[in-house]
Amino acid sequence: MNAAARKIQRIFLTLTLGNTLAASFIWGINTLFLLDAGLSNLEAFAANAFFTAGMVLFEVPTGVIADGWGRRVSFLLGTATLAISTYLYYLLWQFSAPFWWWAVVSVLLGLGFTFFSGAVEAWLVDALRFSGYEGGLETVLGRGLMVSGVAMLAGSVAGGVIAQATDLGVPFLLRVGVLLVMFAVAFWLMRDVGFTPERSAHPLHATRAVLDASIENGLKNPPVRYVMLAAPFSAGVGIYVFYALQPYLLELFGDPGAYSVAGLAAAIVAGAQVLGGWLAPRIRRLVGRRTTVLILSSVVSSLLLVVLGFTRIFWVALALLALWALVSSAGTPVRQAYLNDMIASKQRATVLSFDSLMGSSGGVVVQPLLGRAADVYGYPVSLAIAGVIELIAAPFLLASRRQHPAADRANTSTAADSAQS
To answer: What b/e readout covers 326-365, taking b as 16+ CB neighbours within 10 angstroms?
Structure first.
């Protein structure tokens, strides 16, 4: 990695660190926060579903901004939008607002995250290629996951401890403050490199063009299509499990006010992310095909969730949670690299955003469904059902493997653009 590539990596890791730290202040206590505001399990997970619905609605329009106005502009808009909507969440909690207000603000939170999805990863890959980096993407993306895990570890533990020492609203205010700092950092450091925005005078036409490009380069590309079709099941389950574990672990622990325990659950996931990010490039060197890693990750994750659903011992549940998070995290950089090596630069942010849209669409359906299962049958049964749903992703990943794309065996980040030249 040359000096220019190292600089790009440093900026990427800095942005990842700050944004994940900001977001993670509430990750350990978000479900408890919603329940404390007077929402039922169904309403709490329905609010999360509206968040993912916001991501579905706005992925394509914000993709227009990322490709048409620049990835830097998209990042700055995302930081500002997320800060404002997080503060509104705090106000809803203070005033015990009715459910539909939570639904509206949750959609705005989803909007904030869509400015990030696709744009940051596309910025990184294009800038690395422009700088002359020819190494495997798993290495840099794995480091990003490790930094994200460290930030999540610090933020989730701090959020849980601070909530227990003060109240459930303070971590949300901390998130707002850090996001404002990250806006200033990104404004100073981030520049679009290796990519020239193509602005359109007609936003609706541009949105249609982005959607068409997403379908043409995503769903109409068989190996990419099958990876995207797996996303609703794996991503939808992942979101639910992460938030359901907060009240579930408190239930096993026996103290509903021990918010630091909920933070501990998020911290374990964070630690697993660090280890998973470190393992990903090493596993990749041992395994010839990326899809092998993805399929095994999906199958083992689903089995762990089923076992977790039958666990009644707190410390055993924590161990299973750590294994589930580790297996899922180790597959994440491999999946990112696999997709990026099948996408050309001009459509990178677009297709990555569309992939995020596919995952979010699963969350819209899966979260309220499993939330209702938790209301009726309890959290253990809902987690076991989540494991069964996760398993549905495996056949799609196997179908992608059967297309024999060059990216499945690629060790460098040049496959997609070489095919375009």
So the answer is: bbbbbbbbbbbbbbbbbbebbbbbbbbbbbbbbbbbbbbb
Q: Summarize pLDDT for 86-103 with one digit per residue, the tens.
A: 999 999 999 989 999 999
Do 367 and 30 touch, CB atoms closer than 8 A?
A: no
Sequence-distant (≥ 6) Cβ neighbours of residue 355 within 8 angstroms:
118, 218, 227, 228, 231, 339
Residue 199's pLDDT is what? 65
pLDDT attached to residue 83: 96
Q: Label residue 168 by pLDDT band (50, 70, 90).
A: very high
Query: Is residue 41 within 8 Å of residue 244, measured between CB atoms?
Result: no
The model's pTM is: 0.69
Q: Do 384 and 306 meet the contact criterion of CB atoms below 8 Å apart?
A: yes
Please name which of 313, 303, 311 lies closest in space to residue 381, comparing C-alpha atoms: 311
Name the CA radius of gyration of the chain, rounded. 20
* CB neighbours of residue 131 within 10 Å: 18
203 vs 289 pLDDT, higher one? 289
Report the mean per-residue pLDDT for the chain.
Answer: 85
User: Does 67 or 228 have the greater pLDDT score?
Assistant: 228
pLDDT digits (tens, 9 = 90+) for 366-402: 888 898 898 888 889 999 999 999 999 999 999 999 9
